[in-house]
Specification:
Length: 106
């Protein structure tokens, strides 16, 4: 889940995350989506965001949908004061179909 986003806010912790289960993203009492200010200006309905996240799990074009969700994540980290936030890939690329790696530090 997105617990790390709550934990790192206000701290100086580095973030290294390999997200999975994109389609299980849901709003809660403490989290709402999209996370970043940039995505909130473009995607006004959480249901639209959840459609993208579900397609990241169950679509032949999953890579593009995963990238959309992960860009929202790194933009949110930037909103929280992280100076460097990027998406890279786990190696070897065949280690997992969900091989994105998010790295961020202040």
């Amino acid at each position: 889940k997105q617990w790390y986003q709550r934990r790192v806010r206000g701290s100086h912790a580095a973030v290294v995350s390999s997200p999975c289960c994109y389609g299980k993203i849901v709003n809660s009492d403490t989290l709402s989506y999209p996370k970043s200010e940039r995505f909130q200006r473009v995607i006004h309905r959480s249901d639209d965001y959840f459609t993208v996240s579900r397609l990241a799990d169950h679509n032949s074009n999953s890579e593009n949908y995963m990238k959309c969700v992960d860009i929202d994540r790194i933009e949110h980290l930037s909103d929280c004061g992280y100076e460097f936030a990027s998406i890279s890939k786990l190696k070897p690329l065949t280690c997992s179909p969900k091989n994105n790696l998010i790295v961020a530090f202040k």
